Amino acid sequence: MAMYCVLHLILVATCVMYSEVKAGGTCLRLENKILDNLLDMIVAIKSGSPNSGGNSYRPAFTATLSTSPVTVSGQFIPKFDNGILNRGNGYDPKTGKFTAPKSGLYQFSFTIMSNGGSDLHMGVAKNGKYLISLYATKTHGDTGTANPVLELKEGDTVYLIHGASATQSMAGHHFSNMSGYYIGE
Ligand SMILES: *[C@@H]1O[C@H](CO)[C@@H](O)[C@H](O)[C@H]1NC(C)=O
């Protein structure tokens, strides 16, 4: 609203300067139109729509694993199927991978929970490269977490990948999760 008032004052001042207020209200009608357009732009940028092109657009996602338990073996990539938030559509629940919609710094958070007496090894991978290990012990319901800040280029992928040769079990019911958001350039 403050922004609206400032714009209003500037436009009214411009009208007065050019002495057009007297000329049948043409300038005031024009002023309203310009204000409407500016407000639409501000709303689009503030709401962070991916199509707004505004600098404030921040990709962000949160997803949890609803299926439980999930048997993991080999180079398994868990698919956090329950998307709570997916601004910018960077996260794909079908593949379990986050693909950076724009370049910059990102903060991620991963939690895995072990199930039914099986321990659990996972790793954070970027573009197929194993970066960080997560571990949850055999105690049912133990968790392992990782909260890396990563520098990504547009199109880089980040995801969890199973990191042991043994077959293991992972708890879902929204206890295992993954989220991330764009911090800045
Ligand atoms: C993920 O789930 C764990 C519990 O298993 C919770 O402590 C953590 O806060 C959750 N992470 C997010 C980003 O919500």
3D structure, described in words:
Its main location: secreted. This is C1q domain-containing protein. This protein has 185 residues and is an alpha+beta fold. 20% of the residues lie in helices and 37% in strands. It has 2 domains: 2-52; 60-184, Jelly Rolls, CATH 2.60.120.40. The strands form 3 sheets. Strands 1, 3, 6, 9, 10 and 13 form a 6-stranded antiparallel β-sheet that branches. A 5-stranded antiparallel β-sheet has the order 4-5-11-7-8, with no helix packed on it. β7 and β8 (129-136) form a beta hairpin. α1 packs antiparallel against α2. The longest helix has 21 residues, at 26-46. The model has no long low-confidence stretch (mean pLDDT 85).
